[in-house]
């Protein structure tokens, strides 16, 4: 998948626990876990905004695009 979720990295950098972030953002710990592992199809901008507010970061600090190796060989 070309979109990489680096939420765990930002949580570690900011020394914030997942449970704390979920509470401040207003989402369940289960949904946060799915986001952290990249097993979601999408994320609401309002949720992304709230995560960035709490972690004092930019969306690009959390989400990263990497092209598939298959596309590069074509």
TrEMBL record:
Lineage: Bacteria, Pseudomonadati, Pseudomonadota, Gammaproteobacteria, Alteromonadales
PROSITE patterns in the cross-refs: HTH_CROC1
CDD domains per the UniProt record, alphabetical: HTH_XRE
HTH cro/C1-type domain residues: 19-62
InterPro entries, alphabetized: Cro/C1-type_HTH (IPR001387), Lambda_DNA-bd_dom_sf (IPR010982)
UniProt organism field: Lacimicrobium alkaliphilum
Protein name per its UniProtKB record: Transcriptional regulator
PANTHER family found in the cross-reference section: DNA-BINDING PROTEIN, DNA-BINDING PROTEIN-RELATED
């Amino acid at each position: 998948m070309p979109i990489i979720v680096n939420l765990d990295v930002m949580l570690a950098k900011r020394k914030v626990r997942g449970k704390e972030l979920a509470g401040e953002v207003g989402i369940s710990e289960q949904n946060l876990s799915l986001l952290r592992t990249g097993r979601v199809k999408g994320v609401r901008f309002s949720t992304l905004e709230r995560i960035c507010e709490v972690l004092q970061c930019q969306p690009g600090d959390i989400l990263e695009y990497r092209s598939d190796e298959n596309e590069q060989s074509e």
